[in-house]
Design goal:
The structure holds two protein chains of two kinds. By secondary structure, chain A is an alpha+beta fold. In chain A, a hairpin with a 2-residue loop joins strand 1 and strand 2. The radius of gyration of chain A is 20 Å and the shape is elongated. Chain B is an all-alpha fold. In chain B, helix 4 crosses helix 5. The chains are: A alpha+beta, B mainly alpha.
Chain lengths: ~170, ~190
């Protein structure tokens, strides 16, 4: 069984942490695993209208969404094409966002400020910031590894999506 | 140093991207129903605005201006922003696939967020040095994130309040947003010149 296989959670559990919900579609079933592809949302949260307003735009080609596929234990007997609601822990999401975006950004800006203070040249500052970004990404990798080892990055099955249900960002 | 601090305060509070320049309103209304998602969106947007503004500064000063291609600015900036978003996505995927899967579930597209393009165009207007442009972009996006989080907190409270049916949902959201804009107007008393 792959390392990042996520068991479904009991939605009736009152102790379950506050979850941020998203829609995913079952794209394949292999053995007891269902492979899910998250549905692309838009920055305005208007998923239902995204096909009409063009907000779906760049970077949402089917091939790109393939990269986002993730496995889940298929205890609910999901079939290909079915849409489900998955959830991620709100606190874990904050940690993940901080790890992915804040760490590289802070290191990059810190390196840039230092370079500007020492050298005072735009060219040197630019090069130093790019180097800082690379170091920051390595630090983010280390942080993500720690989060992953604690199992905090696992999306959970919540329920089957209703007919016509869109964009449950709440 | 004082010049940079004033530049950042001005960009984040006095000329706030959302409440003073009215950019990024779609995500302001769409992704602020919860504080968690607002912070996540704010962090992602901060990263993208900062990185794309750095890239746009380079493109403007080493390509568009020397070759007299200023008329292609908007199209070029959109391409650079799209590239920055894809770069971010690819990098997160390479850095940590589980992290990418998790963020991929909720993270909305930022490519179409007009605040990203707006900040890049403001940098050109301001004729700034590289470090000033980067700090301006970073502070602008911090201001964007701050307002997103404040508004999300207010909406979480509103969800528990008894709002008249006619005003429930977006109408009361817009009223609160206007009050928030008035509150931010108070920062215009700070001189950043």
């Amino acid at each position: 069984m792959p390392a990042d296989v996520f068991a479904p959670e009991n939605p009736a559990d009152p102790l379950q942490p506050e979850l941020i919900k998203g829609l995913a579609r079952v794209v394949a079933v292999t053995g007891n695993l269902a492979w899910l592809e998250p549905e692309q949302t838009t920055s305005c949260g208007g998923c239902a209208a995204s096909g009409l307003c063009g907000a779906k735009g760049i970077g949402t080609a089917a091939s790109r969404l393939e990269f986002r596929r993730f496995p889940m234990v298929n205890e609910m007997q999901l079939v290909v094409g079915e849409r489900i609601v998955v959830g991620v822990d709100g606190r874990a999401l904050l940690k993940a966002s901080g790890t992915a975006y804040a760490i590289p950004l802070v290191i990059m800006l810190g390196a840039g400020a230092l370079a500007q203070w020492i050298a005072g040249s735009d060219g040197i500052t630019m090069i130093t910031m790019v180097a800082g970004l690379a170091i920051g990404l390595l630090a983010a990798r280390w942080g993500a590894h720690r989060l992953g080892a604690r199992g905090q990055l696992a999306p959970r099955f919540l329920r089957r999506a209703g007919f016509g249900e869109t964009c449950p960002i709440d | 140093m004082q010049e940079y601090i004033l530049l950042m305060v001005g960009a984040a509070l006095v000329n706030n991207v959302i409440l003073a320049r009215f950019l990024g309103l779609c995500s302001f209304m769409g992704v602020t129903t919860r504080v968690d998602t607002a912070i996540g969106m704010g962090l992602a947007t901060t990263f993208v605005i900062t990185v794309s503004s750095m890239a746009n500064w380079g493109v403007e000063h080493y390509l568009l201006v020397p070759y007299g291609l200023g008329y292609l600015r908007t199209v070029t900036f959109i391409l650079v922003i799209a590239g920055a978003v894809q770069f971010t996505e690819m990098t997160v995927r390479k850095v940590s696939p589980p992290l990418f899967q998790m963020l991929g579930i909720y993270l909305p597209l930022i490519t179409t967020n007009c605040a990203v393009l707006g900040v890049a165009l403001l940098l050109v207007e301001g004729k700034m040095t590289f470090i000033a442009a980067t700090l301006f972009a970073f502070a602008s996006s911090l201001g964007y994130s701050l307002v997103m989080v404040i508004f999300a907190g207010l909406r979480e409270r509103l969800a528990l309040a008894e709002v008249p049916r006619l005003f429930a949902g977006p109408p009361i959201g817009f009223i609160v947003a206007s009050l928030l804009a008035l509150a931010f107007l108070g920062f215009s008393g700070i001189s950043t010149t």
